[in-house]
């Protein structure tokens, strides 16, 4: 059987991976590959979104996602305006809907939003006419993170991820990255194992077609890639393990435990990393770590998403 054929992109918004077809994922990857090729040219700017205005509305902290979206938009020649947490009138009591309606009334062509409320991006996409891209909504989804993770996996393990074994280790329960990766990787045919303490990796996740393991050794031994996740303190409302030190002693990836991995297995992390907690500093900087490659790939993948969503609005995009 061959790889899934790309499908035409018809979605105004990208609010999650759950509803996407494998062929739509393939379309994003193909565009991202093309865009990645342009990023090493001396003139990195493409005219595709010239004259468009993209508003980055980030109501939660971000380094990688926000900057990658800003660079992606700028590489496509769009004008970018970023509004963060306290700098918007949301803190004066304005509703999210009113904020977005006003941004639209100011002739913005697209909103990229990070928000603490699960479902907020989908709600906004249904509320306004311009495209909405989800840059993380609560513990729900972080679609562009999962797309860039899969794009990076394809570069290392081959374009066909069917049968590849990916272990996601850490705080799964509160992670939007884990949810979007589960959807993405299972749609691409990968075999996903979720690992970590039972309080953060409940058996319920098996309903999504993944394995759950509360033992580290077998979860690592089989993996072609291990994706580490940090503990999401900001979303936890109660204690899920006695202390960070105890988490690290049971589930932190250190040199000894990395010895359980296959020789060529890669180590991934969406960032921000907490050195010495979920991963040893030496491992984060080791040859098998692709953490910074993931960050770089975030530009090409987000260029693809911006380009595809913009193309559905009826305004012509200039040739990529
Ligand atoms: N991976 C990720 O979402 O990082 P930021 O929070 O820095 O955007």
Q: By helix and strand content, what is the structural category?
A: alpha/beta
Query: Can you say what the CATH homologous superfamily of the largest domain is?
Result: Aspartate/ornithine carbamoyltransferase
Instruction: Please state how the strands of the largest beta sheet are arranged side by side.
Output: 7-6-5-8-9
In the CATH hierarchy, what is the architecture of the largest domain at level 2? 3-Layer(aba) Sandwich
Strand content: 5-15%
Question: Roughly how much helix do the residues carry, as a percent range?
Answer: 25-40%
Helix segment count? 11
Mean pLDDT: 94
Uncertain spans: none
Head-to-tail CA distance between termini:
31 Å
Task: Please give the structural blueprint.
Blueprint: H1 22-38, E1 53-58, H2 64-75, E2 79-84, H3 96-105, E3 110-115, H4 120-127, E4 132-137, H5 143-157, E5 165-169, H6 176-187, E6 191-195, E7 211-213, H7 216-221, E8 225-228, H8 244-251, H9 255-258, E9 266-268, H10 281-284, H11 291-311
Parallel strand pairs: 1-2, 1-3, 3-4, 5-6, 5-8, 6-7, 8-9
């Amino acid at each position: 059987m061959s790889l899934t054929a790309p499908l035409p992109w018809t979605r105004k918004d990208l609010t999650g991976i759950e509803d996407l077809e494998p062929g739509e994922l393939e379309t994003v990857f193909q565009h991202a590959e093309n865009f990645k090729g342009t990023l090493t040219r001396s003139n990195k700017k493409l005219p595709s979104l010239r004259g468009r205005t993209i508003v980055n509305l980030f109501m939660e902290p971000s380094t990688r996602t926000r900057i990658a979206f800003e660079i992606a938009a700028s590489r496509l020649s769009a004008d970018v305006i970023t509004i963060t947490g306290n700098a918007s009138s949301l803190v004066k009591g304005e509703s999210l809907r009113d904020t977005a309606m006003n941004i639209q009334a100011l002739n913005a062509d697209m909103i990229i939003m990070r928000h603490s409320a699960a479902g907020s991006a989908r709600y906004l996409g249904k509320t306004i006419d311009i495209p909405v891209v989800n840059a993380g909504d609560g513990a729900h989804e972080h679609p562009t993170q999962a797309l860039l993770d899969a794009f990076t996996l394809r570069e290392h393990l081959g374009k066909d991820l069917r049968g590849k074994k990916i272990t996601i280790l850490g705080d799964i329960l509160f992670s939007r990255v884990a949810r979007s990766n589960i959807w993405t990787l299972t749609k691409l045919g990968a075999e996903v194992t979720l690992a970590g303490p039972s309080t953060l990796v409940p058996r319920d996740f098996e309903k999504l077609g993944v394995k759950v393991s509360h033992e580290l050794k077998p979860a690592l031994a089989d993996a072609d890639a291990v994706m580490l996740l940090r503990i999401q303190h900001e979303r936890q409302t109660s204690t899920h393990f006695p202390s960070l030190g105890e988490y690290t002693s049971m589930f932190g990836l250190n040199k000894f435990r990395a010895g359980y991995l296959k020789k060529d297995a890669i180590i991934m992390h969406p960032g921000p990393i907490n050195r010495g907690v979920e991963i040893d500093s030496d491992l984060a900087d080791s040859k098998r770590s692709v953490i910074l490659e993931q960050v770089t790939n975030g530009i090409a993948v987000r260029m693809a998403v911006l380009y595809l969503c913009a193309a559905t609005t009826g305004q012509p995009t200039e040739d990529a």
